[in-house]
Amino acid sequence: MKTFSVTVLGNSAALPTRTRSLSSQVVNYRERLFLIDCGEGTQMNLKRNKIRTGKIGHIFISHLHGDHFYGLIGLISTFHLQNRKSVLHVYGPEPLEQIIRIQLEASDTRLSYPLAFHTTQSQKPEIIFDDGRMQISTLPLLHRVPTTGFLFSEKPLPRKLMREAADRYGVPLEKFESIRNGDDFTDEEGNLIPNSLLTLDPPSCRSFAYCSDTGYYEPLTGMISGCSLLYHEATFMEDLKEAAREKQHSTAADAARIAAKAGADRLLLGHFSARYDDLQPLLNEARAVFGNSFLAEENVTYEV
Amino acid sequence: MKTFSVTVLGNSAALPTRTRSLSSQVVNYRERLFLIDCGEGTQMNLKRNKIRTGKIGHIFISHLHGDHFYGLIGLISTFHLQNRKSVLHVYGPEPLEQIIRIQLEASDTRLSYPLAFHTTQSQKPEIIFDDGRMQISTLPLLHRVPTTGFLFSEKPLPRKLMREAADRYGVPLEKFESIRNGDDFTDEEGNLIPNSLLTLDPPSCRSFAYCSDTGYYEPLTGMISGCSLLYHEATFMEDLKEAAREKQHSTAADAARIAAKAGADRLLLGHFSARYDDLQPLLNEARAVFGNSFLAEENVTYEV
Questions:
Q1: Interface residue B107 vs chain A (CB under 8 A)
Q2: Could you report the predicted ipTM of this complex, rounded to two decimals?
Q3: Is A108 within 8 Å of B14 when comparing Cβ atoms?
Q4: Between the CA of residue A224 and those of A206, A210, B113, B267, what are the distances in Å?
Q5: Residues B151 and B165 in one domain
Q6: Full-model pTM
Q7: Both A264 and A181 in a single domain?
């Protein structure tokens, strides 16, 4: 199975704590790295996790609350000081480019590499990346400022041809591609050999959804239906659900309800309020609704 | 002796390392706190040092290279999230206010407290703070973008009246103030009692100079003449003095030469290039020129 994993760099909401950092995650898909959100201190956390930052080609910013992007300018500057040459693509809401550019100008910095901004909008989902193997879409979320999540979906692979069976039924080489794509085969004597005798199912398509920050938002479940791994914010617990509604954040139980309705395989809870020292009660609350819930622990890599 | 100390939060130049943070220091003068520079991660380092951030009323930014101010927006936001009420004064070069305001706008943040910006200029020294007991001046430095250091100078205190001697010579209460200010006393019989019999010297005035970033800049020595404690950048060692000249940074020996020519009591070296794992050679280089040199160690408080 090709690598598809997520490393959590920060899981704290709004404020860093003595033990928790601000939002950021690294998605590794077949050794290409994608950074999601970039709170203050992200470059230090990348270093601590010995992540090869030269492999990060794309950075996705969910929204412009500081705990999700104040580390971006520092990372961009550090790439420059390290004499990076390859293009860096940054995706995020409109004013982001201006915020970065004004700071580079103030320090009279001409970057050593091209920096390409791509503006996201939060009205409807949009495919923002597709390299033929993996596709990334935005997920409109329910928050106080324009906010999107991100859905990383593996694209369907061709079926796996069983070489021995193909030889046995006399399939010529030039038919291999159509059979990998699901066609049946008719041999020289006119016998129909069904595809199922010639191929195996490809590995199923994996997907990872990052949903932070958001209030409880049911339309999301349709967009992330059946995802393998869902990271969903769980800023509060149910006893503070009024605060959650007001600030358009979720409780741990909200996150679990979304995971259950979306039919996700697994749920990672994160973006915890600094008020919680012990996170076990949040996990318990989510597990009562959706058994396959886990805490998104910092410096831990999760397979998708 | 009233508190006058400096806590070093970060001593790394340009890039954070696994063990060193970006520039920031806290000056404590009689329990008022002043922050100098605010590299990324400063709010975490303040927390680690258990510094009561509510007592920080003034922040001084030397220049707009990112390693000296990318942590400012995060700290300003955190103060807001903590519902700070008291005014925060920020001093720095012109575009700083715009950089901060544009980010607060993007997150639709109306701060819970007043934020007052004060623009510094780097043409000539300027008094930017004076509370009657302590005075803060800018120090124009030699760097690639407009940069100032900061000189914290205690103001002269009145002489210390010896109460017993005053009683012995029959000094009336209403004369105390003039005698504290250095006047002699003439008693009822016309005898002149010299001030030296009535008072002791006040504690001598202490001063702290923060000089980062700067190339070797001799005019500085006149501005910080006789300072008690000098923090001077020492990005490189002498074998890289060409790089130092080109980038307008100093070597450890440069810093020591400035300390010697200024007649400083003690020198703290800081702003070390990330290339140095072991800092002892920088200290040795400085001590060969100026014996009273020390490394500015992070999370250590130095008395001025």
A1: yes
A2: 0.90
A3: no
A4: 12, 10, 41, 59
A5: no
A6: 0.92
A7: no
* Same domain membership, residue B218 and residue B134: yes
**Do B176 and B212 fall into the same domain?**
no
Q: Give yes or no for B197 touching A (CB within 8 A).
A: no
Same domain? B186 vs B254: no
The residue of chain B with its CA nearest to that of A67 is: B74
Number of domains in chain A: 2
Residues B180 and B37 in one domain: no
Helix (H, G, I), strand (E, B) or coil at A295: strand
Residues B34 and B174 in one domain: no
Structure tokens given for A281: 């009660």
CB atoms within 10 A of CB B180: 17
Here the CATH number for the domain that contains residue B118 is: 3.60.15.10
Task: Name the residue of chain A whose CA is nearest to B71's CA.
Answer: A40
Rounded to the nearest angstrom, the minimum Cα separation between A133 and chain B is 34
A98, A237: one domain: yes
Sign of the dihedral defined by the CA atoms of residues A163, A165, A170, A175, in that order: negative
C-alpha span between A13 and B197 (Å, rounded): 64
Answer for the pair A58, A129: CB distance below 8 angstroms, yes or no: yes
Per-residue pLDDT of chain A (304 residues; tens, 9 = 90+): 789 999 999 999 999 999 999 999 999 999 999 999 999 999 999 999 999 999 999 999 999 999 999 999 999 999 999 999 999 999 999 999 999 999 999 989 999 999 999 999 999 999 999 999 999 999 999 999 999 999 999 998 889 999 999 999 999 999 999 999 999 999 999 999 999 999 999 888 999 999 999 999 999 999 999 999 999 999 999 999 999 999 999 999 999 999 999 999 999 999 999 999 999 999 999 999 999 999 999 999 999 9
Intra-chain end-to-end CA distance of chain A, in Å: 11
Active-site residue list of A:
67
The answer to whether the beta carbons of residues A5 and A27 sit under 8 Å apart is yes
Residue span of the structural domain in which A263 resides: 4-157+203-303
Q: What are phi and psi of A98, to 5 degrees?
A: -60, -40
Cα–Cα distance measured from residue B102 to residue A69, given in angstroms and rounded to the nearest whole number? 14
Q: Are B171 and B178 in contact (CB under 8 A)?
A: no
